[in-house]
Structure of Glutaminase:
Amino acid sequence: MTSIPKNLAKTLDKLIASQQGLYREGKVADYIPALATVSPELMAISVATLDGKLVGAGDIQAPFSIQSISKVFGLVMAMNRLGDSLWQRVRMEPSGQPFNSIIQLEWEKGIPRNPVINAGALLVADVLASHYSSSKLAFLSFMRHLANDENIYIDQNVYQSELIHGNRNAALTYLMKSFGNIEAEVPEVLSHYFTQCSISMNCHQLAQSLLFLANKGVDPRTNEQICTRQDSHRINAILSTSGMYDQSGEFAFSVGLPAKSGVGGGIIAIIPNYGVICSWSPPLNKFGNSVVGMNLISGFANELGLSIY
Ligand code: DON
């Protein structure tokens, strides 16, 4: 399907060069104050392929707050633990609402639209907090395992900042609890969720960690089955329809890859049977997606003709 450019590094260098200065079109997230301290000019793109290539350009070694990209990993863990019963507590439909919207959750009786909006990820956090004796440790170990790097860490500054400014997430969780859809105590769920959002990783680490989703659930580096083939399919479907929040339709229209963004400015995109792209640039558009990060991924995907549609 894909013609791999002979010089992937050169393609990525050119893409980074094409984005100089464009970070000014976005705004670094400040509703979690610790995120606002990051330099807006940093940017990076990495591509990891199933046949073992790892190529990048820009600030590829700089760690950033993975934020909502953590929702993908939490979902894998919850699917592995709960199996199909998870889908009685969260749906798989696009929400058409901002990622932290509360309005739909009451109409729909505490059942979140999908696991990658905040309400859905908090539901997943409840599953993990209720099914692991130490879900935060289990999550961090999972991330270190997938990245094959024991140095991956939780940024305590970001964690504290999320906790202090987490009233919207608390409201979402209490509302779900009022409908009987949250098992653990709300502070415990929030603590798990803020912990996973506060993990710092760089583009190389994130791209490599998600290779299993481009390879039917199997990590091509180790042949380990990280999730079932069916769950890999399902996660990619959810990322295609909801991973870029209420800009998911436009992203499918213009790029055509399953993807997930975070308010730290990171975006991951899965290229089935080929590899994973991770881009990063902190300033966001009004949907909470990185402006330059989206340009980098769409530039790469369009140049190589990677759309899955
Ligand atoms: O809960 C929050 O609002 C953040 N910790 C994560 C939100 C996020 O990354 C949404 N992404 N675009």
Summary: The two ends are 12 Å apart (CA to CA). Strands lie at 44-49, 54-58, 64-65, 153-154, 199-201, 218-219, 224-225, 259-261, 266-271, 275-280. The chain has a mean pLDDT of 97. The longest helix spans residues 118-131.
